[in-house]
Amino acid sequence: MPQHGKNVVLVLIFLYSQALMSHKSHYLTLTELHARLPLFFRPWWLNMVSDNWDIAIAKSDKDLRGVFPYCMEKKLGIQIIRNPSLTPYLSPVILHNNEMVYSDDHSNHDETLKELWAQLPKHGSLEIETTTGFNNKFFFKHRGYSIQEKLTYELSLKPEPEMLFKGFHNNHRKLIRLAQDSHTIEEGLKHLDLFLSLHEKTYTRKGKKYHYDAAYLTGIITTCIKENAGQLFIAKNENSEPTAFLFTVWDNKKMYLLLSAVNTETAHHGAGRLLIWHAIQLAKQKGLSVFDFEGSMDERVGNIYKRFGSERKTYLYISKVDSWIWKIKKQLLG
């Protein structure tokens, strides 16, 4: 066969293989894009929190217009799409030149969203939480989805550390200074079991059901530290007793506060705030642009976050239940 003919055949084989490649297989190759998306969109994170995830991709020629990684699970024989535990902001995002762009009801992104939504498998229930840069409510309301606004708190890391600290409420600064005088900060897994125990007690003390599995949390914490995308911080008093814990994760733009706990037996009012201040400084050193307190609908907790100089941001909780069995289950058990 002449060389020209061989080249044509090779091109055809390449094009055919590309056509056969699933969206998920294609997404796995887009390492440059992964670095520009939230941490929770990265394949290793999705593999860690879900046994069954896939992704919808909207594109024009070679340009990606949007992506939507989603996680699936089966309960009572019903296909459910929802964000796994400790995986916020997993939702459709709109892209331009491989960068996330803001989307709302006036952004003319409906065609991209339609293309993404058409790729979802048949499901009886969907519950997702969007990024703070996604506020396109009409597309979902028009299709019968329920929309609820949720709150998070974000601190811009543009100011220098001295100015960030000055932006804290006076009482926060006072408690942090007191804790600094009597505490050291360590990092790592040495006291992981104690942290898990204290984290569970944070819920049981309030009479709340504890939804986390110790093995699941251990997997997330250890994997994130291994991937250099997270750290467990421990505050210790003069007797080397742990008084507070903080677990944060980060991507190329933001650091997220995912988990925290205090030891009520050795508690110091400033220890938790000291760890947050330590994490904020680390985020600044890493060149990140935002520290995300990762939401709270609890007014008391929200006020604590606001006193770090953070701004309140909204994101969307989008849901729809088509399965009558799942509707009954949620009404009875939540």
UniProtKB/TrEMBL annotation:
The keyword Secreted is annotated on this UniProt entry: no
InterPro entries on file: Acyl_CoA_acyltransferase, BioF2-like_GNAT_dom, GNAT_dom, PG_Glycine_Bridge_Synth
Residue span(s) of domain N-acetyltransferase: 174-331
Signal peptide per UniProt: none
GO MF, any single term: acyltransferase activity, transferring groups other than amino-acyl groups
A Pfam entry, by short name: Acetyltransf_6
UniProt keywords, alphabetically: Transferase
Name of the featured protein: GNAT family N-acetyltransferase
Originating species: Taibaiella lutea
